[in-house]
């Protein structure tokens, strides 16, 4: 909602100055806002990934602009989100007093990187970003929100890795079993060597719940090293992580299994979105059953979409909206059951709502930016490749193991320059390798 623009200019200049002091979250106090804003305002950032200052520059009229000074060489790149009102917002970028070019912002949630103008020589450059196609109706308002400006000449390390933990249910039966904690400690200790950006789990974190929740205590303590090191993670929920599974692994109440597979109350008491560290949205408030997290790696954006086992149609529809709203993110889907030990997509919904084949048909193959799917539940390990509806390749990996002796973890190294992937499985507890599951894939296609 806007006040009349004829009365706005003076108030906005004052508001913009004040907002620098009061809008930025305290956690980002050491990072001042990058922009000075005229006829706009600095407001709390709502897109992802969140800028270090915690604010973005909101421009809502053709007289609105933001200025900053950046150093380096290459092309100017801006990060922004927009409000679509019968069309996306377009901004004009001026560098050192000369118009460098225009670009249209095409996402309402993700601060995509938009290069503008020619390559510039090394130096310090004054940049002005101005909205040029403002539009307002009774139903909507076209605005733009700029989170950063930078030079593209900065050196980007194109290699990074993420990890996927398999079913850990055999590692939580006894408090003296240190394999789960050993794995996360190893990941933290090797974070720099791996350039580790994220850790996922394909589910069955525990084996069954007991009145004292002892298995959850072991699992919770095992995840603390990642939290202390601020390595973001997410855990898919398997059937053993729900109240459907009783002591010993059999059905807790066979007459209520379909109902109890959605009872994740205890899981959500021990694991929260705040602990995960990078969650940007959840299907249900207060529950991590269906959530998505974001991170940056290799100079591009990644989105980890964690989905419940045999998901409800409503959860799949939510997931579709998340992927559609983040077209510049490379999407990694993690769910407990997807492919079997032979690499085939599972066909049964078992005691859930929809089958893995339904998930593939209605979500995974429908979006050009879905790159990977990780799952567990059955078999040992495997992989498959599918071609999506837009011609993109979708790489699916299984890692289950149910090991009684070691603590396997799948490591995935991505090189965005060569658009290649290398994955291998390693058990740090006893230095065990599983070379039969090593895979190197080229031409994975990276969304930029």
UniProtKB/TrEMBL annotation:
<dbReference type="InterPro" id="IPR004843">
    <property type="entry name" value="Calcineurin-like_PHP"/>
</dbReference>
<dbReference type="InterPro" id="IPR051918">
    <property type="entry name" value="STPP_CPPED1"/>
</dbReference>
<feature type="signal peptide">
    <location>
        <begin position="1"/>
        <end position="29"/>
    </location>
</feature>
<dbReference type="InterPro" id="IPR031768">
    <property type="entry name" value="CBM60_xylan-bd"/>
</dbReference>
<protein>
    <recommendedName>
        <fullName>Calcineurin-like phosphoesterase family protein</fullName>
    </recommendedName>
</protein>
<feature type="domain" description="Calcineurin-like phosphoesterase">
    <location>
        <begin position="195"/>
        <end position="378"/>
    </location>
</feature>
<keyword id="KW-0732">Signal</keyword>
<dbReference type="Pfam" id="PF16841">
    <property type="entry name" value="CBM60"/>
</dbReference>
<dbReference type="InterPro" id="IPR029052">
    <property type="entry name" value="Metallo-depent_PP-like"/>
</dbReference>
<dbReference type="Pfam" id="PF00149">
    <property type="entry name" value="Metallophos"/>
</dbReference>
<feature type="domain" description="Carbohydrate binding module xylan-binding">
    <location>
        <begin position="76"/>
        <end position="159"/>
    </location>
</feature>
């Amino acid at each position: 909602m806007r006040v009349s623009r004829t009365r706005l200019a003076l108030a906005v200049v004052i508001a913009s100055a004040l907002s620098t002091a009061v809008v930025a979250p305290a956690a980002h106090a050491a990072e001042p806002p990058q922009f000075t804003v005229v006829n706009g305002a600095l407001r709390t950032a709502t897109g992802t990934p969140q800028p270090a200052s915690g604010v973005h520059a909101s421009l809502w009229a053709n007289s609105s602009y933001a200025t900053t000074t950046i150093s380096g060489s290459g092309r100017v790149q801006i990060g922004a989100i927009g409000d679509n009102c019968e069309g996306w917002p377009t901004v004009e970028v001026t560098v050192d007093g000369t118009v460098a070019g225009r670009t249209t912002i095409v996402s309402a949630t993700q601060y995509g990187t938009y290069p503008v103008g020619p390559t510039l020589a090394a130096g310090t450059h004054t940049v002005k970003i101005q909205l040029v196609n403002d539009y307002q109706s009774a139903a909507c308002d076209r605005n733009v929100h700029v989170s950063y400006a930078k030079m593209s000449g900065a050196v980007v390390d194109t290699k990074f890795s993420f990890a996927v933990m398999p079913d850990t249910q055999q590692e939580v039966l006894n408090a003296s079993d240190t394999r789960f904690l050993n794995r996360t400690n190893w990941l933290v200790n090797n974070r720099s060597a791996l350039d580790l950006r994220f850790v996922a789990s394909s589910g069955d974190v525990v084996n069954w719940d007991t009145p004292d929740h002892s298995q959850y205590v072991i699992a919770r303590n095992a995840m603390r090293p990642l939290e202390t090191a601020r390595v973001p993670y997410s855990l898919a929920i398997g059937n053993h992580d729900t109240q459907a599974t009783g002591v010993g692994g059999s059905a807790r109440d066979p007459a209520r299994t379909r109902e109890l597979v959605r009872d994740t109350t205890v899981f959500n008491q021990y694991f929260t979105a705040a602990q995960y560290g990078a969650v940007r949205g959840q299907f249900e408030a207060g529950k991590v059953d269906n959530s998505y997290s974001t991170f940056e790696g290799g100079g591009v954006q990644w989105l980890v979409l964690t989905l419940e086992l045999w998901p409800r149609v409503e959860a799949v529809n939510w997931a579709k909206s998340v992927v559609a709203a983040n077209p510049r993110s490379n999407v990694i889907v993690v769910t407990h059951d997807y492919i079997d030990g032979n690499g085939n997509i599972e066909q049964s919904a078992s005691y859930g709502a929809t089958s893995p084949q339904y998930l593939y048909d209605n979500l995974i193959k429908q979006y050009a930016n879905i790159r990977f799917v990780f799952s567990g539940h059955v078999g040992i390990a495997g992989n498959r490749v599918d071609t999506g509806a837009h011609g993109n390749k979708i790489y699916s990996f299984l890692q289950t193991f149910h090991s009684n002796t070691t603590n396997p973890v799948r490591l995935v190294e991505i090189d965005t320059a060569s658009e290649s992937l290398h994955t291998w499985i390693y058990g740090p507890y006893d230095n065990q390798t599983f070379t039969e599951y090593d895979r190197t894939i080229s031409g994975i296609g990276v969304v930029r």
